[in-house]
Amino acid sequence: MEYTEKLLEYFRNPRNMGRIDDPDGIGKVGNPICGDVMWIYIKVGKNEKGEEIIEDIKFETFGCAAAIATSSVITELVKGKTLKEAEKISNKDVVEFLGGLPPIKKHCSLLAEEGLKSAIEDYKKRKRE
Amino acid sequence: MIYMDYNATTPTDPRVLETIKIYFFEKFGNPSSIYKIARENKKEIEKAREKVAKLIDANPEEIYFTSGGTESDNWAIIGTAFALKHKGNHIITSQIEHHAVLNTCKFLNRIGYEITYAPVDRFGIVDVDFVRKSIKKETILITIMHANNEIGTIEPIEEISKIAKENNIYFHSDCVQTVGKVPVSVKNLGIDMLSLSAHKFYGPKGVGALYVKRGIKIETLIHGGEQEKGKRGGTYNVPGIIGLGKACEIAMEEMIEEMEKVKNLRDKLEKGILEKIPEIVINGHPEKRLYNTLNLCVKYIEGESVLLNLDFEKIYASSGSACTSGSLEPSHVLLACGIPHEIAHGSLRFSLGKYNKEEDIDKVLEVLPRIVEKLRKISPFWEKK
How far apart are CA A28 and CA A33, in angstroms? Predict the structure, then answer.
């Protein structure tokens, strides 16, 4: 399977790229030796119901086109969502959004999910401290 | 379109195409038949054989036509292993061979042969001393490529073939990247068997040859008719073989001039990239390198993402990262050169050829720095200045 048009579009024009200078949580996942690293930054705020939401989210990624596109997609999928909703987002949602992913690149979508979860974990940990 | 992947394949020279067109319909005869249109084709096949022989300084009866570089490599290596199994089961090769050699050796290993893989230095030069020391009484073959397809490093095969000869061991060389690009003389290089492929030097795909020096005995792999003195069966690929001959003839006449021109373009590209983009690692040997090849690592980003961005601009290059070829491991060649994994992932290969122009280089030098900057901006490892 080849890259979908949608994936190439997200790779070409990634959304939410860059870093947040004063983040509430950071998820750092992947390994440069394997060729994929994602850092996800989140800023957490509250909606009118008083629920915690992902107010802002950005990513930095070292990796192939699939790694860059999946990082971008996951940030777009959860931006503005409550933390509870965001935690339910999985790699399957990312793959579905992109209209598929070559099997050999599946780990990229897993990394994106892991990166988001790790950023939320980091936020919760900071809050406890 | 800007094509800079000539080490992968080349466009067929229009003069080659013109020469072979007639052999598909009008002159379609099977050279092994006895009537006129067949006999005429047989003659043309023999003319092509002479042209191939001339290009590599061999005799026509030492040239065997095959389906390409991969078949030639398989035949030389397995053919030797089977022919000399009474003598020994040990083969010496290098860590940076093409997969046509590496996977053939792996196959032989599975059926009981022992393979030694010689290491290379930072520039990709095979450790000749290691080769010498690896020889034992069971060693039947040394196979080392002439120039590496990814990084372009030219190996000291003259020295290695001498060692092989001193020890009465066959020496094979995969010369797919050098024949037609640089002068190759099997006599001066001391080669017993040589693989070559037409489509790497403006000939058609699906045809190549194996040179087997007179007196070298190897087992047949493709059993069939009496073609190629019964050593390689299968109906002659008439247009392919005649095309290969024509490509050899053109290379013979134009190679030297082309070397100069392409080298200038490659050097301009290399210099320009180093000037415009910080933190670039050039791979391969600084001087002992194919004049058309530029392999480099762009630190902090991954090769495939650069290639796809180049593709958006209709610039076609290649990556050693193998990411696109269904494997996630970086190039075995760069790893053998001691390049760390994370840097090897950022490898790019530009391999130039005779149809590249000055403007192509200018365009790449305009586009590539922008792409690298954009991707480095996304990379967590790039310190924003």
Answer: 15
Chain A partners within 8 Å of B298 (Cβ):
none
Helices (H), chain B: 14-20, 36-55, 69-83, 99-110, 128-134, 157-166, 186-189, 238-276, 303-312, 332-336, 341-344, 358-378
Domain hosting B370: range is 2-6+255-384
Touching check for A69 and chain B: CB below 8 Å?
no
Q: Mind telling me how many Å the CA of A48 is from chain B's nearest CA?
A: 33
Q: Kindly name the residue from B105, B248, B297, B323 that is annotated as catalytic.
A: B323
Tell me whether A65 touches chain B (CB under 8 Å): yes
Amino acid residing at B263: K
Residue A56 contacts B, CB cutoff 8 Å: no
pTM: 0.94
Q: Which of B279, B301, B305 to mutate to test the interface with A (most CBs of A within 10 A)?
A: B305
Domains in chain B, number: 2
Is B30 in the same domain as B153? yes
pLDDT tens-place string over residues A73-104: 999 999 999 999 999 999 999 999 999 999 98
In terms of domains, do B244 and B157 share one?
Answer: yes
Calpha distance B59→B61 (Å, rounded): 6
Q: Where is the domain boundary, B251, B268, B296?
A: B251
From B182, B216, B251, give the residue that closes a domain: B251
Question: Is residue B362 pLDDT above 70, yes or no?
Answer: yes
- Enter the ipTM: 0.91
Across the interface, whether the CB atoms of B342 and A12 are under 8 A apart is answered: no
Q: Is B105 a catalytic residue?
A: no
Asked if A62 and B304 come within 8 Å (Cβ–Cβ), the reply is no
Crossing angle between the packed helical segments A65-78 and A91-98, to the nearest 10 degrees: 110
Active site residues of A: 34, 108
Whether residues B270 and B223 share a domain: the answer is no
Q: What is the CATH number of the domain that holds B145?
A: 3.40.640.10
Q: What residues contact residue B197 under an 8 Å CB cut-off, 6+ apart?
A: B68, B69, B72, B176, B179, B207, B208
Q: Are residues B106 and B63 part of one domain? A: yes
**Residues A35, B345: C-beta atoms closer than 8 Å:** yes
Do residues B233 and B296 both lie within one domain? no
